[in-house]
Amino acid sequence: MNMQRTEAWLPSPTAVTALPEGSSRTRARPMLYDAFEVQADFAEQTRAWGRVLHDAISPWTRAGFREPATWWAAGARMMMRAGLTFARPPFGISGVRVGNRDVPVIEEPVAATPFGTLLRFRKDVASPQPKVLVVAPLSGHFATLLRGTVRTLLPDHDVYITDWHNARDVPLSAGRFGFDDYVDHLVQFLETMGEGSHMLAVCQPAVQALAAAAVMAETRNPAAPRSMTLMAGPVDCRISPTAVNDLATSKPIAWFEKNLISTVPQRHRGAGRRVYPGFVQVSAFVSMNAKRHMQGHADLFWHLANGETEKAHAIETFYDEYFAVLDLAAEFYLETVQMVFQDYTLAKNELTYRGEPIDMRAIRRTALMTVEGERDDICAVGQTMAAHDLCTGLPPHMKSHHLQAGVGHYGVFSGRKWEAQTYPLVRNFIQSHS
User: Fold this and answer.
1) How many domains are there within the chain?
2) Domain PHB de-polymerase C-terminal spans what residues (predicted)?
3) What is the pTM of this model?
């Protein structure tokens, strides 16, 4: 199933034009989450009826009956998949091959806050490996979106990941989670991992990774990372603006707050928390490629009806991840849209942390590698490489850049070209600075 997934967490231009100022839909934004909950309840009933039908039809299909029994069974299976889920899918990495032997992998929570967990993929290997913190985007999907990235890194590295929590499950008593809080988490997680660690940030958190590295450099924190690899991140969105970048500047920040922020209903642990809902984000994703997703579900039905289990499983696995969504804390979403996509504070080296300016030129001991995709229509070529112009305190031998030919956004950090062409360069960069 080769369907492009994106980490951009602004709605599609199509979704924006469907919400003109002053329309009844715009005025209805405060009730957005409540309306979705009604739809979610109907989806749950659909799934329940699908399970009943599937259980009733399964004996007939197992006995060898064909059409129309197989059609009914496939239809029931489709009903069982109705709606979105808000629980994190499993990483499902039980083992990895290291050298000439298979090594079990155990997920081990190392540190946790109400908003995120530092998750380690622990292995029992003879020699120490470079510790790498994979910084996952807060983009409406769970960190499991980087399953392929983690699996590729594991044979050569001691891998950790920022396993972000669904904001709708975080009680109000836990406080706010904004841009600075994200940076705090990276600093805290690196301190927990200890000296000699490395960072690899995918997409949106390239900005926060740079901020964390600068903060740790300015404070002479001994846990400052030895290297950071920034992959397809929006460091300077003024360079070759994409449709996503144009959208961010087409509306004032007040429009985003009025139209895209909602309040978590009472039935959830985070009741009363203001969030950018994950279902809004996934709806934007689907609207950008509606025909492709319709065809994907049609293919799934016929694979199920024809007994093509491997092909059906591949599509189901894709959509299990695609339709598992999490909500973002409103303050983090709005602050990042304004700072990164509208005011370009990082690109201008005017970023602040806890009210104090931070200077990217302070980064002198953390080597920098940037990776971009030739066909990336989310984070255009040049936007990530701009980090080199900011980190002027680094000598040339501590900087590296790679433009991966023939890939879009997702192909920068997942897929065959990532594994065969990009990853070996990333691995060598980390090892050379370990």
Assistant:
1) 2
2) 232-433
3) 0.84
